[in-house]
Specification:
Blueprint (H helix, E strand, L loop, with lengths): L9 H10 L6 H11 L4 E5 L5 H14 L11 E4 L3 H14 L7 E4 L5 H10 L3 E4 L1 H10 L9 E4 L2 H6 L3 H8 L7 E6 L4 H10 L4 E5 L9 E7 L5 H11 L5 E4 L3 H13 L4 E4 L5 H12 L5 E4 L1 H4 L9 E4 L6 H8 L9 E7 L4 H11 L44 H4 L56 H10 L4
Parallel strand pairs: 1-6, 1-7, 2-4, 2-5, 3-4, 5-6, 8-13, 9-11, 9-12, 10-11, 12-13
Helix pairs in contact: 2-3, 3-4, 6-8, 14-15
The structure holds adenosine monophosphate (AMP).
The site of adenosine monophosphate (AMP) has 17 residues, from α3.
């Protein structure tokens, strides 16, 4: 079905085609006609389904068909839990609406309020905001939401998780009661249903994919490994596998830095992103990763929310997330827009409890695959006893492959060539301190220049990646 048949106007269809989309995704086909008809909507959809365009496109259509002079002030408000999502959604508004004359602004914390105030004064049609900073503007009376016609609550479940819900309710109190309200959530908890009931009128419900189930295009691998050997396993996989664009997750900021340093020392181009880094460091890291300057980006859960990088070939859970929802969110960073993706989770003995929680949450048993055989640094002979002239990170890998313990888990997978073996051994690992919940001001966010555009990461070197490396990553992303 072409975009045109959904009832979108010509300049908008041209904008979508210029973005590179040829046909609507399932959620877009279902949601766009309903929103154009003025209905409230609940979209229960996982990350990567194309839900942003499902709400941005009909909003752009509606606003571009109204007499602007008759409508002063903000006409659509999109509330989203994180700064990086706010930036990304605003970028989508700009991209899809490139042939339409509407003004959008991302309003989020960690950057100057003055620039936002100045832009708001000049007149903005669509505001994409995080709740904390928007509350600051409302308290200072630097934003007027009395003309809002369409409200979007994006990632409503995360609004609850991140403790924003009271702010969200206060913000809704500043909006006219007569409005269209669109609510999107990956999960429909009791709380989300309660919120919807309080703020919507007779919403159309759209459910895309089975709830909780990680996206079908992602192959999940679960490797048992001792905690003190995870670093070696990671290095082995990165150096021997076809892993060219990898997002590694660590539960803690300290852990993320440690992994990043270790990979760097092993000659693997890597960068880290977490809330302990400055805003410009985070923006540079993300830009560099997007531009293929790094093979690996190491991230914490909070920093990774909303990261939308095309062509992530693998997600590696260096540790098992303590919250089952985070697992779904983490692995959803690959397999975006129906591209293929692999998610690998390292599980030490003490983390099996978390794995069980994930299995319960996604309603699926996750089978252990035999861990690929790798040379552990601890088990290697001291350098003076070694005959080889290896450089750091280039040690000889064992070439023998053990039989898989579970032939079913092993059979037919794309990772067979890595080899398998190695039973999990008992160890007494040190517990990492989970990243604490932060105030909205200290949450991850990405910088914008004075002009309001995201800053580029110009100071990074090319990272020495060959063209074929870049091409492989391009090929990996399969569009609809
Ligand atoms: P979202 O779920 O909105 O975060 O979108 C996930 C990814 O799908 C993003 O990289 C979008 O650019 C991409 N996308 C959204 N709609 C389409 C479409 N109709 N065709 C191809 N890619 C799309």
């Amino acid at each position: 079905m072409p975009f045109k048949s959904l009832g979108l106007c010509d300049p908008l269809v041209q904008g979508i085609l210029a973005t590179g989309y040829t046909a609507p995704t399932e959620i877009q086909s279902e949601a766009i006609p309903a929103v154009l008809a003025g209905r409230d909507l609940i979209g229960c959809a996982q990350t990567g389904t194309g839900k942003t365009a499902a709400f941005v496109l009909p909003i752009l259509h509606r606003l571009s068909h109204e007499n602007k002079a008759a409508h002063k002030g903000v006409r659509s408000l999109i509330l989203t839990p994180t700064r990086e999502l706010a930036v990304q959604i605003e970028q989508c508004v700009e991209e899809y609406g490139r042939f339409i004359k509407l003004h959008a602004l991302a309003v989020y914390g960690g950057v100057s309020m003055e620039n936002q105030i100045r832009t708001l004064r000049r007149g903005v049609d669509i505001v994409v905001a995080t709740p904390g900073r928007l509350m600051d503007h409302l308290q200072r009376r630097t934003i007027d939401l009395r003309a809002v016609e369409v409200l979007v609550l994006d990632e409503a479940d995360r609004m609850f998780d991140m403790g924003f819900i009271n702010d969200v309710k206060k913000i809704i109190g500043h909006l006219p009661a007569n409005r269209q309200t669109l609510l999107f959530s990956a999960t429909m908890s009791k709380e989300v249903k309660g919120l919807a009931a309080g703020v919507q009128k007779d919403p159309k419900m759209i459910q895309i994919g089975q709830q909780h189930n990680p996206i079908e295009t992602i192959t999940q691998h679960i490797y048992p490994v001792r905690k003190d050997q995870k670093m070696d396993l990671l290095r082995h996989l990165l150096q021997s596998g076809n892993m060219y664009c990898v997002l590694v997750f660590s539960r803690t900021r300290h852990g993320a830095d440690k992994i990043n340093k270790h990979l760097d020392r092993a000659g693997i181009k890597s960068v880290s992103i977490h809330s302990g880094r400055t805003q410009s460091q985070r923006q540079k890291a993300l830009d560099g990763f997007k531009q293929n300057k790094f093979q690996v980006m190491v991230a914490t859960d909070i920093a990774a929310r909303g990261i939308d990088v095309d062509g992530i070939s693998h997600v590696v859970n260096f540790d098992v997330p303590a919250f089952a929802e985070d697992y779904v969110h983490r692995i959803g960073r690959t397999g975006r827009a129906k591209a293929l993706g692999d998610a690998i989770t390292f599980v030490s003995d003490d983390e099996k409890q978390y794995l069980h929680r994930i299995e319960k949450f996604i309603g699926k048993k996750l089978k252990f695959e035999p861990c690929p055989v790798f040379a552990s640094r601890k088990a290697e002979p001291k350098p003076d006893q070694s005959a080889s002239n290896e450089k750091p990170g280039q040690h000889q890998e064992k070439k023998h492959y053990d039989k898989p313990r579970d032939a079913k888990a092993h059979g037919g997978k794309r990772h067979d060539e890595r080899g398998h073996g190695g039973k999990p051994r008992q160890d007494k690992p040190r517990e990492g301190r989970p990243e604490q919940g932060q105030s909205h001001e200290s949450r991850p966010h990405y910088g914008k220049s004075q002009s309001g555009r995201p800053q580029g990461g110009g100071s990074f070197s090319s990272g020495g990646k060959s063209k074929s490396f870049r091409n492989r990553r391009k090929k990996h992303t399969r569009r609809f």
